[in-house]
Structures are given as structure tokens and as C-alpha cells.
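User: Predict the full complex structure for these chains.
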Amino acid sequence: MEVYRKSQDDDWQAHMDRYVGLHGIVTDPDMVKNDPEALIEVTLDGEGTHRLPQDCLRPLKD
Amino acid sequence: MGKPVCPVADTIERLDEIISNGHLKHARCRQRAEEILKLMEDVASGRGGSEHIPAMEALASTLQKEGPDAPCKKTGAMLVSVLEEHREVFKSHLDTQICPVTDCARLIPSPCQMACPAGIDVPSYVTLIGQGHDAEAIALIRKDNPFPWVCGLICTNPCEFMCVRGRIDKPISIKYLKGFAAERAMSDGLYRNPEKAPPKNQKVCIIGAGPAGMTAAFFLALKGYGVTVLDALPVAGGMMMVGIPRYRLPREVIDREVAMIEELGVEFRLNTRFGKDVDFDQLTSEGFEAFLIAIGAHDSHKIGIQGEDRYPQVIDAISYLRRVSLGDRRKPGNRVAILGGGNTAIDAARTSLRLGCEEVTIIYRRSRSDMPANEEEVEQAEEERVRFSFLTVPVEIKGQNGKVTSLRCVRTELGPEDESGRRRPVPIEGSDFEFQVDAVFSAIGQRVDPTGFETLKTLEWTRRGAIKTDAMSMETSMPGVFSAGDAVLGPATVVEAIGGGKRAADAIDRYLSGIPQPKMPPVPVRRDRVEFLEVPASTKMTLQRPQMPMLNDERRRVTFQQVELGYSENAVREEARRCLRCDVCVRCGACVDLCRNKMGIDALKLGYLNFDHQEHTDFRVTAERCILCGACAANCPTQAIRLADVGQDRILSLCGTVLNRLKVERCEVCGRVIGPERYHDYIAKRIQGTSPRLKKGLLCLDCARETGARRHTEITPPKLTV
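Assistant: Here is the predicted structure of the two-chain assembly.
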């Protein structure tokens, strides 16, 4: 997936701005995949694993 | 947004340009600049020490103040400014041996280490396990995570999602290797605590003895703080103990790792609920100077259907699992329904089977492929004969005489995708039916239980009901009060809680020591540079990720014995040999590019190097084409590729994988090694027509020159000038 924009969510913190544009993998899809409101565990390329709001993420096309 | 730039690599580039362009005319000035450049290159390559930054600062200051001309002073001023502005980054390079921006090739972290929320140096410990050094591997893991055994059994392993080996076939079985090493180290009596720092006269109180709280306790105790951990439960472990069933994580595993933390002098006050048995003022008056709230997410969401609160046999799955974990092994009924499709639902169902329930049914409103539970656990539940009713929504719980008797449900079908791409279940009219049940467990999500914290008026909460916490400093809205784990994230994973606990311990240490809090997320630390395991290319390609041996189905249905029985020692050692050592090979692709485009040989089939456009990988192909010219090794920025002469052979290896081995030939005159025949053929072909071949056999360069010169003087008389 891609972090394609900043999130409007309360859980988006200022340092996360630099994640915009990065690609990554949802590493814990099991917990929250049917709950768009939940924070989702994402491993960003070169930036480690974080829980992010889902409104800033979009799947990458194959 | 552009890629961030590493100030270390950037300054090296700038300084190198200044020196090589001849801007520094004065010899003494140029010499000092070269000394600074050398020190910076040490920092960028992992060879620096604590003296490097003061030495660079002193030299830069001398250049600025005592420089004989303007370019020298200007260069000095630039360096002083960089070192002042980015001192933390330079220090981080030295302390962690990691360049998070990935500009300093030798300090690029492996994807698995970056993915681990606890930042464990995975390639180093996998290699140590491959060498049979289990206790050393565990000591290395415990520098970042005090629960290697627990994580070796139940971690959600984000490291394996990012494992580069997965681009070739299957990821390294990192989790199970860790579990094996921890068990072996514990069994051998070699699972030991590191040295503690001298005691400090400062006390920290941790509320919650789960993975986050105990991880913080471990690291704070090691730093010399007096640590007390409170927990409402009668046992330490939090969700690891009361949320994860014993057939996945035996109690002894948790007990033994908790005992290691207790051995450091951490005091546990169990059966002590914050806000009921003790309050903030009491704890402050006991002399605690900092607090960590790590209470987990032990409360459950309501189902919201009729009859939910009417019968004692209707409870949330988290409470049910807790009750069973704490020793209540009574059968809840013969027919049990579990509502939900996540891991907790699966755990509650499999637990019910083990307690003797005859019919255990998971009721889930979507289809099987939509289930949020881990696929392996769903399969294991099916093997154990848990029943599933998909596309089913409960609408009412019915009962008689204070006991549940049935669950009324409707069938659903999946509607069109909504804006998030999910298909919502839509009830089918007239499809009502009833399940006969004796107990109903709801497993539709967890949340933080704020009970007891109402008195902390200035403690702020998020709209998700978690404690509002700065992700960098882990500090809450109350000064000196920190928070970590599920209390901050909502229901997350054990390894995330461990990572949060480690960050909180660092933040509390900074707070109590008067050091400013970090402004960026922590950088993982490279703990070692372990020598490679030597593996032939064919073995590297053919080794398979081992299958986990399982307890037989019949015993799984009736006992809480551990289901996953663990790898054999041989399987573990072999599995470690599949690791590609991405802590050293940074997948820059320079070797492939050189071999294919400059040498025209194309002997390196390393398709996995390219993340976005993966091609075929086969380490064995190299031996068919490679001439052992060594161009790849000479240009590898991290020495991942090595060329070495061993006995009569010349060997090319990539992180220990032997790609090619050929016999070398020797100079017929002096006996010096001059490379393999295939290499000579390549050279001969390349110079064909441009230079005559010597008739004499194999000669080294020096002997060839000597012979050539002799022939030249023999056939060409010297020109005499008068």
C-alpha cells in the first residue's frame, strides 16, 4: 500500500508527515481488516512498523 | 515529498568535492579537511567511536578560526554548523550503527530489523542460531526484547512479511528459530540477565504487568531504577497470560521470562487495582517520580442485541478466556456459539472444545475469506472440528428460567463494495433461524477499560478510548506520566507492546535524567556483525522452510497441551542457512549491473534485489557463466560479495553463499596465482585482434611485461639521438 496523504485523524502525529509518499505492507491485516475505523499496523519501507489511520492509505495496483 | 538526506553522507560528499576540486590551496588546511573527511567516513562505515565527534568538532573549529584564507575558514564554518545542527544524527550513527535514511551503505538496516516493532537485530541472531550459539542469540535479542521465548511462540512476525527471502520462495521462519533458541538457552541454564547499572535513587511505578509494562520494567531496572509493577490480576503477564490460551503459549514460558525480570529486583504487587486498591496520591507519596500506564485493552465491545444482558451464560470472550486462564476449567455448556471472526473468537472456540463442549460454532456475518483471524489458526480450528456459520448475523438471545436456550439469527449476503472497498453484509429478509445454545461468547472487539483512572482529571483520552500519548516521548497529558502498549494503540500485538515498553523506558530515563525527549521515532540498533554462514549455492536454493510438527488432532481436542511442537535442532540450523543477510547485502544491485552491462557476462541472477520488478533468482546460474573477474566484489559497497583464493581455488561468495569456485592457474615463470582459465579465455577473447598473444604459456602481468620488454629490445634496436 501507499501512504498517499496526511490523515485527518487525531492519531496522525506531526512526525508522520514524512511518511506521505512511502510504500509499505500491511503486516497485521488480521486484526482490523473489516474495521475502517481501526488503526492498522503497517510496515513502511525503511521507516519501520507503525499503526496508522486508514484514511491515509490506499492499495497499490499489482 | 523527496527522500530525506543523511547529513553524514551529504557532508562527506560536499567535503570530498571541496578537497578534490582544489578549493583548499593551503596544505595545512587541506590536510585538516582530509582528516575530518576520514573521520566522517569512519562514522558512515561503522568504524567510528566516541572520540570521533569531539575530534571532528575540534578540527572544524581550528579550520574556521585559524584558517589562513577565506575558503579554509568557509569550509570550517560549514563543518562546524553541520556538526552542531546534526550532532544527534552523527551520534545516532555511532551508537546504533544504523543509517535510517539508507545513504550510508554499510549502515543500512535489514528490512526484517526495521519491520520489528522492538527493533531486534534479526540477521545477527539468525546467524548465531545457525552457528549453534543459541544463548548468544538470546542475549542479543534481549538487548531489545525481554520476551524472546514468548515471541518465539506467538509473535505476529512482521519481520517475516518483509523478509527478502520471501521474494525467492518463502520467508525465513524467524519466529520459530527464536522460540527454539530461547527454549534451548533456558534448558541449558544459559538464559541470563545482562549486568545492571549501579542503583539510582529514583523509583518508577508501572501500572500493568503485561508485555509493555514488564518490558519497561526490564529496561528501567537495567538502568538502575527502583521499579514496582502493579497489576489487578493475581498473575503477571497481562494479555499474554489471560488472553492467549495455554495450547498456544504455555504458562511456564511466561513465568520463566517474568522470573528473569523479577531477578533484576523488580517488585510485583499483584491483585492491586489502580483506582481501587491504591491511587495516584498514595503512590506519589511513596516516592515514585514517574509512572507508566500499561493497562492493556481488556474490555470488550457490546454486541447490541436483545437478551445480551439477561443471562449469565452470555459473556464476552475476553472475560471467558481470562477465567479459563486463571484456572476455571468448567465446561460452559454442551452447545456454544461464539460471535465474531477474529483471533479472539477462534481462541474462545478452541478453548471451549478443550473444556469438553460438544458443539462449538463460530457465527460470523461475512464469508470465510473475510475473517480477520489468522489463517493458520482458522485452519487449526477446522482441524479440531470447530463449526462455522458464515454470512450469519445474530439478532436475539433467547432463554428460559434465567438460562440461555437459543440464538436467533438471520442469513446475510454481501452487498456491493463501499468506498473503502469492503462488501457490507446485508440481511436476507425472511431467513431467520434459531441455534440451540447453552452459552454465547461475544468476540467483536476490545477496548481500554478506563475504570479507576477517572480521578486523573488531566489525563486525556483519544476518540477511540485510548490514552492520548505522544508517539515519540510516550508522555501523556500529565507530566511524568507515560503510557504504552494497547492502552495507547487499542488492541494491538505483543511485539508492538514490547516496542512501546522499550520506548517508554527510554523516555522515562530521559525524563528523570533531565535529557530532552527525541523528536523522531527511535532507530534500531545493529547489535553485531556476525560472520557469514558458508552455504553452497545449490543448498541455498534447495533448502525449504520446515513444516511445524503438530500435536495430533485427538489430543488437541481434549487437552491444553502446546499444539505446535517446535522444530528439530537440525531443521533450525538448516533454516538459518537460508537467510540472505540483508544487514550486509543492501540490495543496491551494483554487482548485477556491472556484471551484465559493463562486463557483458550476466552471471548474477539475483532477481530478488529489485523490490518493485522482481525477476528470477537462481544462485546456481553464476557457476555456469562467472569468470571470477572480481569486478562485482571490488565494487560492492559493503563487502557482501567477496573473492578469495583458498588453496588451489578462487571462490566468489555473496554473504557466505558460494556462487562460483574455479581452480586457479599459476604463472609459469614465477608461480604467482593468475586466476582461473575461464578468466584468461575471457581476456584473450576481448583483446583478440588488438594485441598479439604471447607464445610463451601462462604469465603473470609482471612476467609478461618483462618478457614483452625483452622481446621488444631484441627486435627493435634503440633509436640513437645525436
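The radius of gyration of chain A is 11 Å.
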